Amino acid sequence: MDRFEMISSKFIDYIREAANEIHNHEFEKSYKTIINAININPNAPEPHNLLGIWYEFKNNNDLARKHYRAAYALDPTYKPASENLERVCTFFEAKRKQVNFGEEILEEQEKAKEQKDKLKLIEVEIESGYCACGKQIKDLGISADIIIGYILRGNNTIVPNGKTEIREGDKLMIFTNMVSHKTVISGLIGDK
Description:
By secondary structure, the chain is α+β, with helices and mostly antiparallel strands. The protein is 51% helix and 13% strand. Strand 2 (146-153) and strand 3 form a beta hairpin.
């Protein structure tokens, strides 16, 4: 695990921990946890959203609105902040919504990351008429998350570079993530 992943993982742990602590009315503990998350990533909307919730539970709607606005300013697409801001600014109790901790978004982000991180080895045999046939690897326009590990050409194994030409009958051994593997195949095959 590299440093970025460790920081990212610790940040998510703090966000979840703070949300649980607020749920359990452990307000002093949750405040410290939120501050730890802000120290890791001050530009993330999640800790500011949680601070807004924290202040709202402490009956300080002015500071709650301030932190919901900060979260919204950091990421206008972060729905929990806009929903909480709308709720705290609503005067009619009947129209008030529940507090949105942003837990669903965290779960979606983790699932997407897990899928993206799973590597898949696929084998593509190049046939006549495939758009990759006769092209150098550098001209295929493949993204950085796709690696042609090696090519089986007859009885030879080739470790390719950008200038390696793809030929009919080549078997490309490609490492890609779970999300991109269908795009890889369609990009190599193209229109026959």
